[in-house]
Amino acid sequence: xxxxxxxxxxxxxxxxxxxxxxxxxxxxxxxxxxxxxxxxxxxxxxxxxxxxxxxxxxxxxxxxxxxxxxxxxxxxxxxxxxxxxxxxxxxxxxxxxxxxxxxxxxxxxxxxxxxxxxxxxxxxxxxxxxxxxxxxxxxxxxxxxxxxxxxxxxxxxxxxxxxxxxxxxxxxxxxxxxxxxxx
Length: 183
Fold this sequence. Notes:
Elements: E1 3-7, H1 16-31, E2 35-38, H2 44-55, E3 60-65, E4 80-84, H3 87-97, E5 100-103, H4 108-122, E6 130-133, H5 140-151, H6 157-160, E7 163-166, H7 169-178
Parallel strand pairs: 1-2, 1-5, 2-3, 3-4, 5-6, 6-7
């Protein structure tokens, strides 16, 4: 595994555990020499994850629409920054660049990224695992919703194989190794 696309909030959220999870993820990526592909912001959980990764000697590539450079405070210390025009281009680039996907806590933008990336998996547009880090129970209700979709016949068991709700980075590593990734 060379590059992991990380989705997370441009805001920090209320629970300090969210920031700890973001920082832990940054350090985890750096220790495993995995380049992070992310939204390119300096604020919120995006910035916390990137700063922890960079401080630990890792590499981060940001993908940011030009209109968000001020609002999300484009991170100036990254390995590389790719500027695009639209949110759709941002998602497309981040999906293409990642070998797998990890969503940390976040808001509607993060939810949209999870949904689109997983939908593309279901449609066979990629075969990369989609992991949702349920730090501090942030995604309990979303996990329940996906179970409800499965229970009500909107998702098959096969479809669910590409989407994993995890509670730790050890779990993430085990799932990625089982999918054939090496660190």
